Amino acid sequence: MSLGFNGDVVDFYQKYRRGYPAEAITTITGKFSLTHNDIALDLGCGTGLLTRPLAETVRAVIGMDPEPDMLARARQEGGTNITWMLGADTDIPKLTAVLGERSIGAVTIGQALHWMDHDTLLHALFPLIRPGGGVAVVTNGTPLWLHDNPWSKSLRASVEHWLGHKTTLTCGSDAEAQQRYAESLRANGFTVDTDTVEYEDELTIDEIVGGMYSALPPSKLPTPEQRPVLAGQIQRALEHDGPFIEHVRVTVLTGQVP
Ligand SMILES: C[S@@+](CC[C@H](N)C(=O)[O-])C[C@H]1O[C@@H](n2cnc3c(N)ncnc32)[C@H](O)[C@@H]1O
């Protein structure tokens, strides 16, 4: 069953989702002492926004995702030492059987753990990772419609009016979710730490609308004919709220195998 990362949503994802800052990648590679002898796994890799920078510091990366359309786009974007693999969190025990225990230096999960059964997954990941390596749960900031500023509030009101319901989805970026993930890491034997990278960026209306479309399931995505109508509504709703500065707070929650 598709989760909704398919069709036109993939194009919006690839065009409008921001990549991860270099400091977030060096945090992961430094913490787990990754070298060109290591293999890494990027679980829920999507179009490969986190997979590709990670691949520069290790021997090989497996980018794994259950959505064929996301993987097809990831493959198109390239990566010579990356193997793109169709699979989900539930496939980890089988992957461990293929690769062997303690064979992986790092498992990264970027903006995707909220889709998975994190307790079962983290338990399954522990034997796959070598000592000193670990899991990095990365969130790439708060969703655009949940910031505490006038333009984000106007965006939220406009989108909720269009959808006909509230939009409260935090994609695992809220403190409560982070706490749950940290506790689960600890309970499964990992040593836990959190690092953050913060910066500001100015967005255009086009980037705000595209970023929002990239987060909608295809069933909620406006038709190509409706898209300019909604974009116009958002533009009017935000016209007195510029400049559109996004404060991006990237969190890297790590669980290290002792
Ligand atoms: C918001 S996207 C993040 C993609 C990428 N990691 C990034 O940071 O841009 C979430 C991804 O998780 C994937 N996903 C959903 N359920 C999953 C599961 N059970 N196991 C692995 N990946 C899953 C989706 O297909 C989607 O590509």
TrEMBL record:
Residue ranges occupied by any Methyltransferase domain in the UniProt entry: 41-133
Q: Does the keyword Methyltransferase apply?
A: yes
- Output the lineage of the source organism: Bacteria, Bacillati, Actinomycetota, Actinomycetes, Pseudonocardiales
The source's superkingdom equals: Bacteria
One MF term in the entry's GO annotations = methyltransferase activity
Q: Does the keyword Methyltransferase apply?
A: yes
Q: Which Pfam families match?
A: Methyltransf_25
Which keywords does UniProt give here? Methyltransferase, Transferase
Q: What is this protein called?
A: Trans-aconitate methyltransferase
SUPFAM superfamilies for the chain: S-adenosyl-L-methionine-dependent methyltransferases
Biological process according to GO: methylation
